[in-house]
Design a protein that fits this description.
470 residues, mainly beta
């Protein structure tokens, strides 16, 4: 009898042995989505919209079909122009009928139409996250296959460099000067999984969870305006299966910050609290900052012995946080000041939520009391997006996504959410009307079309399902 192994099982075995397959002859396409795992919206110049606006996406190369993963930049100005033309230009619409599915229920914008290949970067395989620094001028990508963390600069002034720069060579490979790796003092643990950062006056610090051993690492991203990656601390055994990470910086004393960690294999479900204490005006002191586990928010009584906590997100008010649990399937609301669980919403049996991200809308007023805070929760195995109104913590809005939703990013200026569908290598586009609590797929139906013409849901990329997926 032949034994069958999943792609995940094979990857874990190969990673543990340190021998990933050699596919050195096959470079990843520069204009494709390939198992996307992380995204962020980046403005080249926030004061000048025409300077460039991108959705930056980390491709994991999960099936090892190519010799590396990649980071691609979707030009949002081009995307929005295409959406407008599809809606308002009948001739443009008619000339692109090959973008539509056979049943005309979906339209797939080819990635080559919107990806800026001049800004495609090659990284190792099995990227697992993508995050921006607080200043939004650095992109952080943990790469499990390389046991490295890649730092990409946002170029806002040097015409001789691409918009996204990591010292890349002519093949797009990042140089070692843009990677956090092991050094003489510390070894970067296996499987860096999720990342976060804190900005100080002259230094930006990064933090990463490590899935295999439950460690949390701390590293320098930027020093005096220049990228200078350096691993400076590793704390062992923080949380079994360390997965989610979020930060809270004290607005009065920025040198006093907290890092929140969740673990997917923790027998005592809790959010671990780590503290960073430093002198923000002294670079040398920052590299020797206090960094350790100082407490926890126990949630065992809330989830009745569950052990699988995933993502965590901290609200802009710095008090509320939201955690997704898979056992049972729920979203928990935390009070960080009192270190307590304040509410919980069941997501339903079989939903298996994996990611939570927060979207804050100003409610069309300048009064913070009118802000609308929404929790976007991705359910990977059910192919669904849940939108939870955090002010009432009741039954969420539910939308069907593509296959295997893995990451979500927001373009607040255009009130849109983008969902990376890992298993089919596409991105869904969601329109957000936070004030009226309405959330719908972006669709297209030209103004000149007959009333009976159905609207088609829009995705970036044509679905490419793994073999054997139905």
């Amino acid at each position: 009898m032949k034994m069958k192994f999943s792609t995940v099982t094979v990857f874990v075995l190969l990673l543990a042995m340190g021998c990933l397959p050699d596919t050195s002859g096959i470079d990843p396409p520069k204009d494709r989505l390939i198992y996307p795992v992380g995204m962020a919206v980046v403005e080249v110049d926030p004061a000048n919209a025409s300077a460039g606006r991108f959705l930056v996406v980390a491709n994991s190369n999960f099936d090892l079909n190519y010799n590396s993963g990649s980071i691609v930049a979707i030009d949002l100005n081009k995307l929005y122009s295409i959406l407008d033309s599809l809606e308002n230009d009948q001739a443009y619409y008619n000339a692109r009928k090959d973008w539509f599915s056979k049943d005309s229920k979906d339209v797939y914008i080819p990635t080559k139409e919107v990806i800026d290949v001049n800004n495609t970067i090659r990284i190792g395989s099995f990227a697992s996250d993508l995050a921006l620094t607080q200043s939004k001028d650095r992109v952080i990508v943990p790469v499990r296959g390389d046991s490295a963390i890649v730092i990409v600069e946002l170029n806002r002034g040097d015409p001789s460099r691409p918009v996204f720069y990591c010292g890349q060579d002519q093949d797009g490979q990042c140089d070692n000067g843009h990677k956090v790796k092991s050094n003489e003092d510390y070894s970067l643990p296996l499987e860096p999984y999720e990342v976060a950062s804190l900005d100080y006056d002259n230094v930006t610090l990064g933090f990463a969870t490590h899935l295999a051993g439950g460690e949390v690492s701390m590293f320098v991203i930027d020093q005096n305006g220049s990228v200078s990656p350096e691993l400076i601390r590793v704390v062992d055994s923080v949380a079994p299966g360390a997965t989610g990470i979020a930060v809270r910086q004290d607005p009065v004393d920025p040198g006093d910050s907290e890092i929140y960690i969740t673990g997917r294999r923790d027998p005592f479900p809790r959010v671990v609290i780590m503290q960073v204490r430093t002198d923000t005006g002294n670079v040398d002191y920052i590299k020797n900052s206090y960094f350790d586990d100082v407490g926890r928010i126990s949630i065992s009584s809330e989830i009745y012995g569950g052990t699988d906590l995933r993502s965590i997100a901290v609200a802009e008010n710095g008090v509320d946080a939201y955690v997704v649990s898979r056992s049972p399937e729920a979203v928990l609301q935390l009070d960080l000041d009192h270190r307590d669980v304040t509410d919980m919403v069941s997501m339903g049996f079989g939903s298996e939520p994996s990611v939570v991200e927060l979207y804050t809308d100003d409610g069309n007023t300048e009064d913070p009391a009118d802000d609308v805070v929404l929790a976007f929760v991705l359910c990977f195995l059910r192919d669904q997006l849940y939108v939870l109104e955090t002010d009432i913590m009741m039954q969420p809005h539910v939308l069907t996504t593509g296959v295997g939703p893995h990451a979500v990013a927001f373009d607040k200026a255009h009130r849109k959410a983008f969902v990376a569908n890992f298993r089919e290598s596409t991105i869904s586009i969601i329109n957000i009307d936070a004030v009226n609590r309405q959330f719908k797929h972006a669709t297209v139906k030209p103004n000149t079309s007959p009333d009976e013409t159905p609207a088609a849901k829009i995705k970036i990329g044509k679905p490419r399902l793994p073999e054997g997926h139905s």
